[in-house]
Amino acid sequence: MDAQHALSAASRDGHLALRRVERQQQLIELLAGAERRTVSELAERLGVSTRTVERDVERLRDAGVPFESSVGRAGGISLPVTTTRTQVELDVAEIAALLSSLATVGPNSSPSANSATAKLAAALRTDVPRVDVGHRR
């Protein structure tokens, strides 16, 4: 493969990876706090095939997202709802990694991405009060 075609393929692959990350974020947001949804419903909402949704769920599960799924007439996929915030301790390198990922997706691509970006950026600043991402009652 010549250099021009290799660059084109790499760019296309990067674009597809970015679209996948954006879609997976949307998938989690669709399921967060929602009732169980069918794969068909999720595919329609995301504008992709049911197989793509199944692959995305599998990738996210492998990454640790605790999806619950069931088969049958009332089957579908859900994400357990938590009503409390969890405190997470991250070092500077971990915060930077998350900010870099959010910058790739677009820090304003969704309300949750925007909120996460602001909290992570504030955690790196020493001249402003810390943003509490701990427990909220």
From TrEMBL:
Domain HTH deoR-type: residue ranges: 20-79
InterPro entries: CBASS_pafABC_assoc_protein, DeoR_HTH, HTH_11, WH-like_DNA-bd_sf, WH_DNA-bd_sf
Signal peptide: none
Keywords attached to this entry: Transcription, Transcription regulation
PROSITE patterns reported in the protein's UniProt record: HTH_DEOR_2
Membrane-spanning segments: none
The protein's name in its UniProt record: HTH domain-containing protein
Natural source organism: Ornithinimicrobium faecis
Phylogenetic placement of the source organism: Bacteria, Bacillati, Actinomycetota, Actinomycetes, Micrococcales
